[in-house]
Amino acid sequence: MTTTVPDSARATSRPDYAALIEPSRVHGSLYTDPRVFADELERIWYRSWVFVGHESEVPESGDYVRKSIGPQDIIMTRGRDGDVHLVFNRCAHRGNLVCEDARGNANAFRCPYHGWTYRNTGELLGYPYNKGYGGKGNLDLSLGRVPRVDSYRGFVFASLAEDGPTLAEHLGAAAGEIDRLARLSPEGRIDLGAGWLQHRTRANWKLLAENETDGYHPQFVHSSIFSVTGSPIGPLYSDNSTAVTRDLGNGHSENDLRPEFRRQGEPMRWFGTSESRVPNYVARMREVYGDAADDILTEGAPHVMIFPNLFIAEIQVFVIQPLSVDECVQHSTAVQLGGAEELNSRMVSQSIGSVGPAGMLLADDTEMYERNQRGLEMRQPEWLDVRRGMHREALDEDGYRTGAATDETGIRGFWSHYRRLMEVDT
Amino acid sequence: MSERDSNTGDAHDVTPDAPCAGTVRVDDSGGGIVGNEFAEVGVAVDHSGNGPRLRLEDYRTGRVRNLDALELETIIWLPEERLTQLLDPSTTRWREEPDR
Ligand code: FES
Ligand SMILES: [Fe+2]
Prior knowledge:
The complex is a heterodimer of chains A (426) and B (100). With 426 residues, chain A is α+β, with helices and mostly antiparallel strands.
């Protein structure tokens, strides 16, 4: 392909990420410059592994749900072959959206514009009045297929790059956090079929990704929900807490609250309840896991941000979908665990209380995101400071950088991975 | 009680509870609607003849087809490729040659 833009000119038109991302500070333009967002689409969202959905959302053959990879509209389907497929929601004729509903069951799709039909795996089945194409089966077209699809414990990830690191390589230590969540099910099974709420947010997606494991803000931003609900979570994010913030590599990070829960030594306290309130669940867990059950029930669920868009917040899952440099959608659902009915209904009601239309948790954070985006549009000072806790970080026994509960260790891990991805030339 | 027994009209009509267009409504006779965003078909077992048959109605056009037991069994045994061919719009509704 020929181009009129010389390579050198194109190179200099890209922001200099090494100059914008320093170990202890990042430049404000990273959140406001549309060129940065365009670069991120190419280098992160359309290349790296991105979480799309969970296999439990399409349990039956023919099931489909509309999903996204950044601004791309993706259809996740369960084919007759039993496999999960990801196709772009774009007709191969003249580009209409093929699916409109958020979910449904269909082995075949029909484009509403001129009636072309497709199998739910993307294959073109036919088109009306085929003489216009010299007969049937003459078009070598299909729905666009996502080049790489892989899953871990039912969590389906996609990469729009033909090659690159495997999903296992990308997840690295974060896979163990998904394992921790699954272990809370006596059947080892996670279900994300409870339905998704969507919150449109006028802020850059990175503000959300950074905030998910920022243990510095909860005492301020979430003080009202902590006091109203009598939640024991607040004090876990203070200077007295033994909880830690961990950089898991590849941009992933966690707030590891286990040290606090182990210290307290009360099964189910992580869930704000006690064994006697969920007796059947606890009995089932002891039956399945034996001696290990006490630890599992005490340590609770992970609080992990998986780069770039999957946040597992103990009992909820959030997905960050960027739409433009200053707008994104937060998708959230309640975790449901196979064989844990007593927990599941509670997780739904707790999720409604925190992320529902009148929920208190997500609204608090979103207010901060939107204020943050506005603040970043001010010209001075140009930088954001992310040095908190640098002087007291250490490597843990597994070699992961770990800071105190309120430190910005996770945020720095995000930026060092981000910088690596953004400096790559396409 | 059927929804029609009520004289309060539409207030008692059964409406799909799902926000998406996918609809499955089953009435007392075991009939219902199988619908998604691509098509909507009414399904009922019709007993007006000497034996039962399946009555299918395309709600978007009103076109009806009745299928007997042997025809249904044949559909169940139809190889996948044959069903796929039928989903090519030019094979069935949208073709230049008139129906014979
Ligand atoms: S755009 Fe889909 S059939 Fe024409
Ligand atoms: Fe028109």
